[in-house]
Amino acid sequence: MNVPENLKYTKDHEWVRMEENEAYVGVTDFAQSELGDIVYVDINTVGQSLARESVFGSVEAVKTVSDLFLPLSATILEVNPLLNDKPELVNQDPYGEGWMAKISIENAVELSELLDAETYSNLISK
């Protein structure tokens, strides 16, 4: 499994990449492999301010639909427009072109509560 060192992770298999006060969020390589072929990403919370662990959207795979949980309290700034026509990017490049939402974080302290790459790797290897 690919677990980049420069990201933070949740136990719900989302990742966060910080860029100043904004961040990109997506699902991990482990999550996309468990879900299978992703056919639709539904995020209709742009502009909303949500608490950490709130559902901010869902991802639909061939066999299941799964909620997406916000890793940090934040405002949803943008949804990846590429996923409208190519939801399979989540499978192909979960940490790059398959990102799901751009957020503005509201409480930087919450970052320290996320998992680092080593801790997340240990979690998924059990």
Descriptive tags:
single chain, 126 residues, OB fold (Dihydrolipoamide Acetyltransferase, E2P), 3-stranded antiparallel sheet
Give a written overview of the molecule:
- The chain is an alpha+beta fold.
- The protein has a single domain, classed as RNA polymerase II/Efflux pump adaptor protein, barrel-sandwich hybrid domain (OB fold (Dihydrolipoamide Acetyltransferase, E2P), Beta Barrel).
- Helix content is 18%, strand content 35%.
- It has helices at residues 29-35, 82-85, 89-92, 117-124, and strands at 8-9, 14-19, 22-27, 38-42, 49-50, 55-61, 65-69, 74-79, 101-105.
- The strands form 2 sheets. The protein has a 6-stranded antiparallel beta sheet. A 3-stranded antiparallel beta sheet has the order 4-6-7.
- Strand 1 and strand 2 (14-19) form a beta hairpin.
- The protein starts with 7 loop residues before the first strand and ends with a helix.
- The mean pLDDT is 94.
